[in-house]
Design a protein that fits this description.
globular; single chain; 281 residues; mainly alpha; disordered C terminus
Length: 281
């Protein structure tokens, strides 16, 4: 993919999303949320490409994936008024559908078009099957870039007054003080919290914190550490037994991936010492 083709895709995106802005005020907030998310994911992808030393051709393919990964969100919201896939349709599949209907990848080498399409198709899997055809450089890059902005999106959502929030961003989870034991246990075990075990917004926060175990690149861990998203999410959680320790494990994982020398002789990370001295959230 040359730069002129990438520029054409960017112009197409700007034109495409305008058609979805003719809606009510709440709908417009939700559409703008996804437009801004896409633009920020593109910016993060540039940082990942530079940090991981991608060749110019690879960086342009990665940029195209970032631009197109969520184009299915716009028809999804128009039809179902939700961003929750389980209540509508798989937004990654919808994105591929839009790409095909709009013939966005026509004229590209077949192998290149397939890389872009498959990265978009698999970007929202719970986990990429390692060693499978879906486990490509570009699939891993978009999964990291997507997470790094979703953390920002939801921190802003939690900080806004309810009447100013993009309503679909909360995915319909109840804003209750409880946390589900299954979600805490998964996070404490260093596992990804499954969406089907989440019942409340607090559970969804634990799910997002658990994404720390599914990042792929050192640059991704560095950006997450610099931006402090996990710690900020943790501050919004209730002081429920086991939550602090579970979060501490995820935070420690990030520190160790950025600074592996923090491992002590006993095999435990030094950063856990300071984390355990903090009060409960």
């Amino acid at each position: 993919m040359d730069q002129s083709r990438l520029d054409a895709l960017q112009h197409w995106f700007d034109s495409y999303v305008q058609a979805f802005c003719d809606t009510d005020p709440d709908g417009l907030r939700n559409i703008r949320l996804k437009v801004e998310h896409t633009r920020r994911v593109c910016g993060i992808m540039e940082l990942l490409a530079a940090g991981e030393g991608l060749a110019p051709e690879e960086a342009r393919i990665a940029a195209a994936v970032a631009l197109l990964h969520d184009v299915g969100r716009f028809p999804q919201y128009r039809r179902w008024r939700t961003f929750r896939d389980s209540d509508s349709d798989n937004h990654a599949r919808l994105s591929v559908e839009v790409m095909r209907e709009e013939r966005l990848l026509e004229g590209l080498p077949q192998a290149e078009a397939l890389l872009i399409e498959e990265a978009v198709r698999f970007h929202n899997l719970l986990e990429l099957p390692r060693g499978s055809e879906s486990d490509t450089l570009f699939a891993r890059l978009i999964r990291d870039a997507d997470k790094l902005d979703i953390w920002r999106v939801f921190l802003e959502f939690f900080q806004q007054p309810p009447n100013q929030r993009a309503s679909a961003a909360g995915l319909g989870f109840a804003d209750l003080p409880e946390v589900s034991p299954a979600c805490v246990a998964a996070l404490a075990a260093g596992q990804i919290v499954r969406l089907d075990t989440a019942r409340t917004l607090n559970d969804f926060k634990l799910l997002q914190i658990s994404w720390a175990f599914d990042l792929n690149f050192t640059t991704s861990f560095r950006l997450l550490q610099e931006r402090g998203y996990l710690e900020q999410l943790a501050e919004t959680l209730p002081p429920v037994e086991g939550v602090h320790e579970a979060v501490a494990r995820a935070v420690a994982e990030v520190h160790l991936r950025v600074e592996p020398e923090l491992v002590r002789k006993d095999g435990n990370p030094e950063c856990l010492d300071s984390l355990h001295q903090r009060p409960h959230y």
